Known about the structure:
Blueprint: E1 17-21, E2 28-31, E3 40-44, E4 49-55, E5 60-65, E6 69-72, E7 76-77, H1 90-100, H2 119-131, H3 143-151, H4 162-166, H5 179-192, E8 205-211, H6 217-220, E9 226-233, E10 239-246, E11 280-282, E12 285-294, E13 298-303, E14 310-312, E15 334-336, E16 348-350, H7 352-362, E17 371-379
Amino acid sequence: xxxxxxxxxxxxxxxxxxxxxxxxxxxxxxxxxxxxxxxxxxxxxxxxxxxxxxxxxxxxxxxxxxxxxxxxxxxxxxxxxxxxxxxxxxxxxxxxxxxxxxxxxxxxxxxxxxxxxxxxxxxxxxxxxxxxxxxxxxxxxxxxxxxxxxxxxxxxxxxxxxxxxxxxxxxxxxxxxxxxxxxxxxxxxxxxxxxxxxxxxxxxxxxxxxxxxxxxxxxxxxxxxxxxxxxxxxxxxxxxxxxxxxxxxxxxxxxxxxxxxxxxxxxxxxxxxxxxxxxxxxxxxxxxxxxxxxxxxxxxxxxxxxxxxxxxxxxxxxxxxxxxxxxxxxxxxxxxxxxxxxxxxxxxxxxxxxxxxxxxxxxxxxxxxxxxxxxxxxxxx
Length: 381
């Protein structure tokens, strides 16, 4: 097992640093205090990128993202593993980072993404290290080089670096936690993933943990294998957090296909101009909804704005991948599904009885107004 390399000091206000989970017996427990006997707040898979706040003298590290808590330093290391669905690996990500920070060879608008530490990449890396006041090694063995890139002011508005660098699986709150503890945990997940949390009395917040599932699962009928949580504070200030079995992905029941298992009406949009409609799935992220009513579905939640981040399965393989295009939609609803299939062509659905319970608890204090909804990845295929 490897040790943690620390950047800076451990005084209050020191800069954070990045670590990657590397556990010989995953997943890694994230605990409420720097002790193996403390409460488990969640679990992190290997290769998860975490933002650490400080390293303690007893071998524990306080982390801030993707969730808050403590992990032991022997379960993490600064060396980045291969990035999710990136066959080239971390050198390619470093080349993207250099471009994002505005570092590139002379007389060239950007550094070529080769996935190899070639002469140009080495030279540009040394220039970056020199400008950042670091030792000019020309390699990535020093975590401070990565840290300086992530902290660079130009990178904050440069979107192409985000998908390969922050994708991490997040565990739902443990079953043994109290409602108040689940509330605190889910609130932190929402905030750490860019969501807006409404903590006013009876203001509802929704959070779904997505277990990535093929649209062709269950003989093209879909599965209710995700978990959705509803969070709010009641009139007495009590923290409420309720859990529902749900589905956040479409099923191929509605796919534009000649397969006899595609028995539903054809849904989707043609995102690549090949004449076939492509099913869509809300990308993990933050959205806002409001209550409404439909003649087809009854009580529903509708988005308050056009959702631009809808990934389209253009190769119809049942999986929504990072390289596939996004083409928006305004009809990614919450509604009741059926007991024997999810009834989803991209909407968020639950079995009828589960959805009735969800709706009753959502509106138990009247119309909740704008409802923040955050989706995070729980498990990947």
